[in-house]
Amino acid sequence: MGDVIFQQLYQPRGFWARRKYDNFTPPLRPRQPSPVNNTMAIEQDEIEKIAELARIRIAPDQIGPLTRRITEILGMVDQLQAVDTRDVEPMANPLDAVQRLRADEVTEENRREAYQAIAPAVENGLYLVPRVVE
Amino acid sequence: MHDKSVAQLVTGLRDRQFSSVELSRCFLERIARLDSKYNSFISVDETAVLALAAAADRRIAAGDAATLTGIPIAHKDIFCTNGMRTSCGSRMLDNFVPPYDATLIRHFNRDGAVILGKTNMDEFAMGSSNESSYYGPVCNPWDTDLVPGGSSGGSAAAVAAMLAPAATGTDTGGSIRQPAAFCGITGIKPTYGRVSRLGMVAFASSLDQAGPMARSAEDCALLLNTMAGHDPLDSTSSELPTEDYCARLNDSLQGLRIGLPREYFGEGLDGQTARRIEAALGELESQGATLVEVSLPHSHLSIPAYYVIAPAEASTNLSRFDGVRYGHRCADPVDLHDLYTRTRAEGFRDEVKRRILVGTYALSAGYYDAYYRKAQQVRRLIKQDFIDCFEQVDVIAGPTTPGPAFALGAKSDDPLAMYLEDIYTLAVNLAGLPGMSVPAGLVGGKPVGLQLIGRHFGEARLLNVAHRLQQATDWHLQRPPAGEVA
Fold first, then answer.
1. What is the C-alpha end-to-end distance of chain A, expressed in Å?
2. A87 touches chain B (CB under 8 A)
3. Is B34 helix (H, G, I), strand (E, B) or coil?
4. What angle do helix axes B271-286 and B459-472 make, rounded to 10 degrees?
């Protein structure tokens, strides 16, 4: 009901009267990797290196498709390179807050058993992992 | 009972029209009967729900009730619940039963609200369609062939289908506002730091923020009163005092200046959606607000800046999932390297892996300045755009999304198309501002949302504008077709 009433009542004026909406076009596709910075053309062996750094095993047949996807994403991100950011301070926190420090006091209770109860493998209060030292 | 607002349910419980046990049973019955259509819940523990409801009834009988005592509320499965699985939509945490409560959950428990269940979500909150969940996609109650939006898609669908009176969500780049718009409900992402992040599984720590999702601004205000506040255990939590978010809901809009960013009404915005936004703004204008054209000249950079910063922070946060202390662990690891790489390969799905890899790349030696530092500089420019606008206007308004909900599967194989869904919402997180989505009517039977953006810590003003809009219109009262939610 509300829709119909407001469609009838509201006549665009001012700012609204100047706008045209009927030519709907889908959002622009991000542009392709740019020659501005040739590091954007990522190679398969780089993806393998990154996956190793991130400790994620990628099946051999997935490396190719994944490389193409990540190249697309980095190509879109490449729009940033065109922005003049000289003298702009990087912003790590939206409120520019600084790390709050607390008094150096013991406030935590020991909950080792509760935490270890949900671990995949523990023994005698220790987390178990495959042998590291031969 | 299921179609009442939280405000009406509060009154009903206080006046003993019904008990919390009766109310909770009503929603449990609806979930059991209807949720196979939507898949909006991951976990519902009936015994625990009824125990909490019975405790709430005792508290009400003893005259010791807080506002939300006895109200069933669904929580996104990203908030740690002591003794109840918290999966974050991932196989990685499918077996994770937290040994503690998130601060947000503690606040709801303190006030005696009932945890109705844990809602479905995109894996680790990474997605805009709720299709990346390990537990399967959520369907939109308005049309089950459509996505509900994401990542808080389960919360939005549950509230829209009246399987819960209200829910919590989180919003890193639009994950409360976009599903609220797609499902025809009201949701607010508060200012960064307003609601504690302790016990909320981290995605991008400088962007993540929790907020309420409900069927009206008034109901959102009631929930935010419980959720907001300083938490000494979250070092990014704001120390600014909170306010009663219900106190100014009815304030007049006379003299309010609303900025309309020209970048939010240009190319890419669906024409019919634009007309719904126009109608909503016309109503605000008729109540005395003035519409002012403003500009956010760096807004087109919010997608590239976000897709460096969010994946970079995600790659760091998600490095904790190692198969050693909790969560998934691969079978029979031959050595530590095998344990890590196979556990993470099995535990994460494609979108999460992509973002971890992009983030690892952006932070890696030699690329840090070109990506992460550059994105943080652009982030400051994006925030400055808003600061400049707020010198001229009190509130910024525009569409929440470029159009209504799209079909399930339409964009699930195209990450870049999916990322563009958040074109109007990402900048708000980058700037740390409060933003909300308010129903603005239907386009072809599908809901669309009006987005309102406020000054830092201006939640009460946003809720006031949304409430006044809802007092004069009935878009927030429109419900999915009866066949879908009966």
1. 76
2. no
3. helix
4. 90
Four-residue CA torsion sign, B370, B376, B379, B384: negative
Query: How far apart (Å, rounded) are the C-alpha atoms in residues B270 and A131?
Result: 58
- B421 neighbors B128 (Cβ within 8 angstroms): yes
Distance from C-alpha of B292 to C-alpha of A52, rounded to nearest angstrom: 51
pLDDT at A40: 53
Name the 3-class secondary structure at B342. helix
Q: Rounded distance, CA B453 to CA B461, Å?
A: 10
- Contacts A108 to B, Cβ<8 Å: none
- Asked if the model's pLDDT at residue A101 lies above 90, the reply is no
Put simply, whether B269 touches A (Cβ < 8 Å) is: yes
The region, left, alpha or beta by phi > 0 then psi within -120 to 50, assigned to residue B192 is: beta
Give A-chain residues touching B275 at CB under 8 angstroms: 7, 21
Tell me the pLDDT tens digit for each residue of B130-189.
999 999 999 999 999 999 999 999 999 999 999 999 999 999 999 999 999 999 999 999
Model-level pTM? 0.93
Total count of residues recorded for chain A: 134
Contact of B236 with A93, CB cutoff 8 Å = yes
Tell me how crowded residue B405 is: count the other CB atoms within 10 A of its CB.
27
Pairing relation of β-strands B41-43 and A122-123? unpaired
Task: Name the minimum distance, in Å, from the CA of B380 to any CA of chain A.
Answer: 6
**A25 has pLDDT over 80:** no
pLDDT in tens, B40-81: 999 999 999 999 999 999 999 999 999 999 999 999 999 999
| Least confidently predicted of A18-27, A70-79, B261-270 | A18-27
Tell me which amino acid residue B70 is.
Answer: G
Interface mutation target, options A49, A61, A69, chain B, most CBs of B under 10 Å = A69
Q: How far is B177 from chain A (nearest CA, A)?
A: 19
Catalytic residue among B132, B175, B238, B315: B175
Complex prediction ipTM:
0.92
* Nearest-angstrom CA–CA distance, B288 and A71: 50
Sequence-ordered strand ranges (E) for B85-240: 114-119, 166-170, 186-189, 210-214
Average pLDDT across chain B, whole number: 97
Two tokens, residue B91: 């196989």
